[in-house]
Structures are given as structure tokens and as C-alpha cells.
Design goal:
The complex is a heterotetramer of chains A (about 110), B (about 160), C (about 525) and D (about 90). By secondary structure, chain B is an all-alpha fold. Chain B has helices at about 5-30, 35-55, 55-65, 65-90, 120-150. In chain B, helix 2 (about 35-55) crosses helix 3 and helix 4 (about 65-90) runs antiparallel to helix 5 (about 120-150). Chain C has a domain at about 295-505. Helices cover about 75% and strands about 5% of the residues of chain C. Chain C has helices at about 1-35, 40-65, 95-120, 125-145, 150-165, 175-205, 210-215, 220-235, 245-250, 255-280, 280-285, 300-325, 325-355, 360-395, 410-425, 430-445, 445-470, 490-505, 510-525, 525-535, and strands at about 70-75, 90-95, 290, 295. In chain C, helix 1 runs antiparallel to helix 4 (about 125-145), helix 5 runs antiparallel to helix 10 (about 255-280) and helix 6 (about 175-205) packs antiparallel against helix 8 (about 220-235). Classes of the chains: A mainly alpha (about 110), B mainly alpha (about 160), C mainly alpha (about 525), D mainly alpha (about 90).
Amino acid sequence: MIYNIPYIAVVTLVLIGLYAVIMKRNLIKIVIGITLIESGVNLFLITLAYREDSVAPIYHGSGMRLMSLPVPHALTLTSIVIGVAVLALMLSLIIHIYKHYGTLDAKEIGRKEE
Amino acid sequence: MMGMSKIVKTMVSVALPLTLIYGLYIIAHGHLTPGGGFQGGAVVASGLAMLVVSYGSVWTMDRIKEKHLSSLESLGAFGFIGLAFLGLIFGSWFFNNFLLGNEYLFGMIGEGASNINTAGVIPLMNFAVGLKVIAGLFAIVLVMAYATSKKGGDL
Amino acid sequence: MNGFENILSDLLVHSPALIVAIPLLGAFLTPFFGKVHNTARNTFVLIIVLLTSFFSFLLVHDILVNGNIHTYVFGGGSALTSGGFAVRILFQVDGLNAFMAIIATLFAIVGVIYSWSFMKEHTGLSKYYTLYLLMIAGIFGMVLTGDMFNFFVFLEITSIASCALIAFYTNKGKAVDAGFKYIVVSATGALFVLFAIAILYGQYNALNIAVLASNIQFSFLDRIALVLLISGLAMKAGIVPMHMWLPDAYGRAPSSVTLLLIVATQASLYGALRMIFTLFGGQLSRSVNEVGGIEINVNLLIGAVLVGLAILTIFVGVLMALKESDFKRMIGFAAVAEIGYMILAIGAALTIMFSVNDLETSRLALNGGIFHIFNDALDVGLLFLVAGAVYYATKETSLNRLGGLARNMKYTTVFFLIGLLAVAGMPPMNGFSSKLIIYQSTFLVNPILSIIAILCSILLLAVFVKVFYSAFLGPKQAKYEKVKEAPKSMLVAMAIVAGIILFIGLFPDIFISNVVEPATRALVNSGEYIQYIMGVI
Amino acid sequence: MDKRTIAAAVFFSIVAVFLIFGALFMHPFGDPTEDDMDQYIIDNTQSQTGADNGVTSVVFDYRGFDTLGEATVLFTAVAGVILIFRRLKK
């Protein structure tokens, strides 16, 4: 059980994010929710990389000790950059939405669109 | 937004060169130490974002156009995919590490020693990606800051 | 002559990589050409797309004619290292991938030709074409890759590029809002997919689809991963609980972008098919569970859920299309209904396979479903192209204000008639031949399902006949007196699609036996796909 | 509480229950059940790519195509942001 606490943390982060995405009406809060899910998934990937008593996979000065797995590090790197890209695009769309409707409330926007 | 106070501007002009050098160091040593093109590029871009914050986006936009940043980014991306295509031509597979094992440039295989002249195309790819990330992230920050500034609006 | 054949076979070996790499290269270079001249840039984009199509044709031809499976290892070397690890990224192309590649190639060409005149009045065209090529590259990457994480990366490329393009008309708040809805749904869906990939990686320490499929055990975590994968991809494919973004995005985007959005949606659907039939394919056939003494066949459950969702999707799509008064959004709802027909066929195939154990009929149903993927893309695509042409000529999308266009836009009217008959599944068109197969196979699951499907199809016909009557026929309106026929490039694009619709409608058997059958075979015999990589039979 | 909120809440609780159970079924932290592929990479990185940094060798050599995709994603985002904030009149 104690060994599963990192996974519980991951699931908690993902769930908080999911809650924000499906329950909140403010667009900025939805974006924060997506970022939280993203952090949860990144944390999960990094968690998978760890082996007990291991060092980072850099050979110089590692002294032939056990190394943590390199592939999840690479995947996390990719996933972080993708997250930045999605975030930038979402925020610029929000800037435009605010210019058009003067509000960030999803319901209000829906009413103004009618 | 006309920029922040004189203290902030002075601090930025001191910190900016250091940030740039640190970022370039991370890019150049990507194949030896933690870091690489993306991380170093992000450091440099955050240094440049400091410029936007302290001097204001309109001031920055007068000096650096987003068109040029976009071209620079295309150049970086083209360098990256060009290296991959060179792998197809010289190494007979797309993304082949064709420089590995040559005697002149980055060809050595570093057995434990932190020798910068190692790893084949990886350092070159790091440079290409670094250029791309610097230009790309700075362009995003600049464009979004300009769009929300009072004077600005559309590009 | 021999040298030429050598070069051709070399190109064939490298074509899976080049199909993705060339549009990417083109996208990186488009801004430079945009600085020179507009026509130079358009020509450059067209050349890039034609070059991509050439490689795609080479690859697809070899797969469909010779029945080969192609792999390409990025970075070189053999697919598996000693010990059986797929360390490098693989592209693996079989009949199903080839089938999707045909759709993507066709629509890439048609879209670029259509954009030539359709977009010429707008600013920011360099960026538009850059994103267009990136979207094409992303779709090709999605349908060719054999690596889970690579699939996710291309999924994100496609969705980010399409989101920016949906919001192309930034002066309209609705377009921007549609783009935002799309990016929220697709980012969440993509993160679900990534989460599932991470779960699978944590268990089996592999990312290659074939390697994963040969190791998978269907434990509790694997089932969570399966559900996350399917729900994430279903969000992006617009199946009913998560369909609301689809008509908005389809309706507000420029028509040329909608064309590629249809393909992107279907690429997500392809992803779901690949995950169900290949990744979990070996396990699905014997996944019987016991819950409290009652045996539950998981496959039958998946099949039944899919059939239920499909009927709901068809129903919702048709009903909303009846109420809608905006031309493009209405076609968007029709597209939702059409997606429902594909899911219906796939669900019916799974249900038949595991309840009646009738492989022949389930194959027939799968044939119908896959065939309908192609037909749906063509039919809905043609309708959107027509709607785009009408918008180009009149700057109007509301059906209440359109009228009497047939006099001035003769060719467009003919193309709309073809698209209308095809989307409603009327006899001489391609929609009829695939829907007939779907009706036949669902009849075996439950006759009521088949009747509902037919009724909805008739309703769809009614919807579009109403549009035809109100927008194209009817009295001449003064404000549309000077409306001109659409420019040549748009007519050419529509004519290509309409020609293919008529050809498939008249000779469906040729198409089914040469293109659809290999795809179905690839889907059903997942063992071939896996063993080609594992090298063990 | 309208219907949509209730449906969303039900959906959310189902996801929550399954994910928390899933977390309990994961292998213990720091002890992966399978790590052969990564061990292969760790053992062979230096001789096959010449890089001293294992992660960089994965990012740019073994999974270099992913990195191309990742660079493309950033490129796409920049193009998208510039497209969205473009000037509308010629």
C-alpha cells in the first residue's frame, strides 16, 4: 500500500483536473483543469521511470550504479512540450473569445451566440 | 504597457546575458549533461520573455518582428528535418546517426569521458532544436503579450 | 530500365517515412515561399502534396496488389534488437493502414486544389498552408505508425493544427468558440490516450503495438487502458455523448479545412479500430468473465455498447439536422449520423462474431463498416465543398435566406444533388452500396435496429431534399441576381469527388474486392500484423 | 442541479473509482515488473550512439522521430498563434 502512494497522487491530480474540466464553466478554469490532467500524466510517466537506488542515466561519474529508465524521461519531455503548445493555443483562443463576448463564462457565451 | 521601473530594467539587462549564456551552455552540452535543445531553448526564451515583461511588448515588437522569429523557427525546424534527410542520403535510413564513427566532427564514441566531440548528429540536432525552441517560445510570448497590450491588437 | 526499377524499389522501401517527412519539410519551407509570391507558394504546396501522393500511391499499390506488409525503422537496423525489444520507432503498414492512406491522399489533393481559389481573398495564407500541410502530415503519421507514443504525438499535431484552422475566421466569435471547444475535447481525449499508453508501458515496458499485442494479458489495468483508449479516441471521433463539438467545428471552419477534419475524425476512428482489433485482438476472442457466478462475455458487452451508442448517434444526428437552419452545421449533424452507421456496422460485427459465432456475416458487417468510412468521407466531404461554394458566392449560410441558386450555379447544383443522393443512400450512388451491407448485417443482430437505420436514412433524405428545394430551387431572389458560378479550381475539386462517388456507386464490387477486402482481412487477422514484427509463426 | 451536472457527476465518480482501484493494482513504486527494453538501452547507449547522456540518446537517436513530431507540435502552435492574431485586412 505504501508503495502505491505515488500512483494515488497521480490519480488525485488527474481527478482534480477532470473535475475542473467537466464541472467548471469558466474557460480559464477549464484550461487549468487540462493542465492539471497533463501534470498528472507527466508525473505518472516519471514515476514509471524510477527504480530503487538508481541514478540518472548519465554515464560520466555514475560509477556503474543502477540507472533509472531513460525512455519515460524522453516521453515526459515530449509530453511537456506538447502541453506547452496546447496551452499557448488555448490561451490565445481565450483572448479572442474575451474580445468578442466580453465574458469567460461558458453559459453566458452560449447565450450570446443565440 | 510601457514597461516597468528603471530598477527592473537594469536588473534585466544584467541578468539577460547570463541567462543567454547559461541556456546556450545547456544546449551545447545536451549530449553530455542533463539538458538539451528543448531545455536550453526554454531557458533562453524565458530570458527573452523577461525582456518583454520589463520593457513592454510594444517596445520589443518595434525591435524584433514576429515575422523574423517565425522565419528563424522555420530555419531551425528545417535544419532538424534536413539532418534527418541527410541520414537517409548518407546513412541509408531516415534519422540515421550517419556522423557516428567519422574522424572529424562529433564522431567519437565517448567511453565515459565527457568529451564534447562525441555522439554524431545529436549535438547538431540539439542546436537545430535549440534555435527552433528559442524562436518559437519567444514568438508565442511576444505575440500573445502584444495582442493583450493596450496599443496592440492584431499584428 | 533496370536502373529505373531499382530506384523505384528503393523509393518503395523508404516511402512510409517519406509520406510523412515530405509534407513536414514542405510545411517548414512554406513561409519562405510565401515571401516570394502567392502563386509560387500555392504551386509549391501543390507540388509537395502531389509528391506525397506519388509515394503514397507507390506504397498502397504494393500493399493492395502484392499483399505485403511494410515496415520502416527510423534510424535503421532491424525492427527488433536481440532480445525482442522494439527500441526504435516503427512504421508498420498493412491493408487497413493503406486504406486510410488512400482517403488521406485523396482529400489532401482535393483540399489543396479547392483552397486555391476558395481562400485567396484572405490574409495569413502562408500560415494557413503551413498548418494545412502539417495537418496532412499528422493524419498520415496517425494512420501509418506502429508505435503507440508516436500515434499520440501525431494525434496532437493533427488536433493542434486543426484547432488553429477551425478558428481561421477570427472575426467571428462563433468560429473561435468552436475552435476552443474542439481543442478542449481533443486535448482531454489525447491525454486519456497518453494515460493509457503510460499504463501499458508500465506493465509491459514496450511501446510498439505489435510487441504490446503479443504480450498483453488483459489484466484489470489493461482493461482500464482499453476503456481509456476507446473513450479518448471516441471523443475525437464524435460519438454521441461527446458529439457536440463536431457540428460546431465542421460548420464554422472553412470548407477546405472541414474536408481534412473529416479525415482526421476518421483517423481517430481508425485508431480505435486498431486498438480494439489488433492490440487487444488476441485477448478479445477468449475474454469471458465471471462476476458473481454469471458469465459475462466482454466482447459481446463491447459489441452491444457500440451498437447502442451507434443507434443513439444516428438518431441524435438526424434529429438535430432536422431542426438546424444553418447550412454547414446541418451537414455537420448529418456527418454525426454517418459516423453512427460506421459504429453500427462494427458493433454488429462484434456482436455477431461472439453471439452467433457466424464469421462470414461478421466479416460482411466489417466490410460494410470499412466501406462506409470511405463513402462517408466522400459524401459528407462533397456536401461541405458545395456549402463552401455557396458561401463563397453568396457569403450566406443561413438556409432561411438562401434561395433560387440553381439558375446561376448550375454545376454546383448538380454536385449537391449527387452528394444528397449519396449521403441518403439512394441507389446509383456509393452510399447505397455500403448502407445496404450494413442493413443486411444489422438485420441479423436485431431487425428493429435495421429498421431504425433505414428510417433515419430516409429522414436524412427528407432533410436534404428540403435544403435542395429551399436553397437551390424556388423563386429567383433579387439579392442573388448577380451570383456567379464557383471558380474553376473549386469546380474541379468537387468534380473529382463527385466522379469517384459515381464510379464507386456504379461498380462497387471492384472497389470492395480490391480495397475494402484487404483492409477487412488486416483487421480480422491481427495475428499477421503481430507476427510480421515478432518474426515467429 | 440540472440533468447535465448529474450526468457529469456520475461519469466523474465512475472514472474516479476505476482510477483509484487501478492505482492500487500498479506495481510497487521503484520496482518495475518489466524493464528489459530500458536495460538494453542503458547497456548499449554509449556504443550505439556515442552520447554520454542516456536520455538525450533516446530523445534524439532511438526515438528521434518522436522528437521531430514534438518539434513540429511547437512549430504548429507558433503558426497557429500567429494565424489567430493575424491582421484581417490586407
